[in-house]
Give the backbone structure.
Amino acid sequence: MRWAMILLLLAASAAADYQDPFGLPSGSATLGLATQDSIQNNGEVEGLDVATGEVLAGSYLDLVQEGEVDLVFFDLDPESPGLQLRALEGDDYFDRLLIFSFADSLGTTAPLESVTGAEGEGVEWAVHEEALEGCCYLLLQLQEGAEPEVTAVKFRITLLEDESLELDWVWQPNGSMDFVPSAALESSLGSVKLLY
């Protein structure tokens, strides 16, 4: 009986969601690969909705129109070995520069806690970034009509496989680009909003 309890506790702790040390909304997620075939032929794909912490599934077009999914894991080119991460385009179907990889500055072994902010670090936003195990990323989340409309998410890929990936994420819902306790910074993302 005692060993069974220990095994249950170990299994529960292994499956526990990531918890941000500063208490920001955080968690873990597993995303299945969205292939070009499933995207183009109205098949089911998965995407992460950071505001709820849920992985949503549906056709790519439905997910774009609903505007709730912030991140997808997909193959940009079926013939290319590299897999990609991207934020969905807007409901106007225009790509948006919403993601940044720390692969060049932090490498692929830095813990998620090492990303404390983004401003002043030479962040160049992209439409998509290569998925690399161990790498940290920044993502801008757009919530039309919300206050604030643009918020920041940091995440780290903890496991990368051919058909899925696992990640830990932290959301800063107050409009700041800092992932440490801070007051809301109303103008911190003003320059980013000009991109849209």
Observations:
- Residues 19-193 form one domain.
- Confidence is low (pLDDT under 50) at residues 1-14, 183-196.
- The two ends are 59 Å apart (CA to CA).
